[in-house]
User: Fold GTP-binding protein Rhes-like from Sinocyclocheilus grahami.
Amino acid sequence: MSLLVREHRTVRFVFLGAAGVGKTALITRFLQDRFDSKYTRTVEELHALEYDTDGARVRVEILDTSGSYSFPAMRALCIRTGDAFALVYAADEPDSLEEVQRLREEILELKGEKFTGITVIENKADLGSRSRQATAEVIRAVEEDWGAGFVETSARTGENVTGVFRDWLQQMKLPSRVSPALRRRTQTMSREITETREKPPMKKNNSCILS
Ligand code: GDP
Ligand code: MG
Assistant:
């Protein structure tokens, strides 16, 4: 093998959480530094960033999921193929926090009790303290009982959005801000899965893009 063949790694970061909590908005804020207040339902979208570091090329994949998870097998595949997870809930949606607990249980079931790559995100911090669910008790439970990271973000204002990605990218010794050059090299692939009764969407490779 040629000495010029460099190490090539791929790591996949998966966003999970109820529909409407801001998964797509957080990813858009991180990758493009913009915010869109209109809601477009995501099906499944994979973003890829290519980093060149000393002697290695690293492909960082960010998987955006739909949040409706009508197909448990699809969700399980997203979990199996993920290396780290952002479990997102919205400050003003108590049910979405409960969904985070269910998702964490499913991740541990599939990845093993000792799995540590989870960050819990309370998004929509801009809605003000009255809709905040991140009580000291919630934060303690996440950080101490779960051993997971906890971040409060606003995709609308941009608050803490980089923080979501920062620790995780730092662990891989990659820059946590997307440089303009890298932004141009970001590819996005989306899969349209139409969830209609007449046309069953579960084609074999419709789950977790390129997994
Ligand atoms: P997803 O289904 O989890 O991908 O949620 P989206 O990213 O599509 O966001 C759902 C809705 O919430 C959209 O109308 C967004 O504009 C809005 N939204 C997302 N993030 C925030 C935020 O931080 N603050 C506020 N106020 N609205 C947000
Ligand atoms: Mg979405």
